[in-house]
Amino acid sequence: MKNTLYGALLSAFPGGAFWLLFLFFVCFFGIHIVRLAKIGWQYRKGAPKPAPKAEEKPRPAPQPQAQAPQTPQAPPEPVYYIVERKRKRPRETYSTPREIRFK
Hints:
Shape: flat
Distance between the termini: 54 Å
Order of helices and strands: H
Helix content: 40-55%
Structural class: mainly alpha
Mean pLDDT: 77
Largest sheet: none
Low-confidence stretches: none
Number of helices: 1
């Protein structure tokens, strides 16, 4: 009985593998064709941008305003924080234990 089951599965394998690969390639190429069509559609829909004219002169960079001479300032001193580890004080007395009931 085992031989017939395995024989049926082995005989179906080449056909199933073919259709699996075929379906994969159809989906793969279909997706890429749709993506390329979308890019082409957007390209045709939008007007092409005009090339910059060679006659136009570039704008000069804005010149900084004259500033009063600044006195050299010393760099700020670094700030150090003293961090101390929090210490837990041991209790001298503890309360009586409570009973916990779970429902």
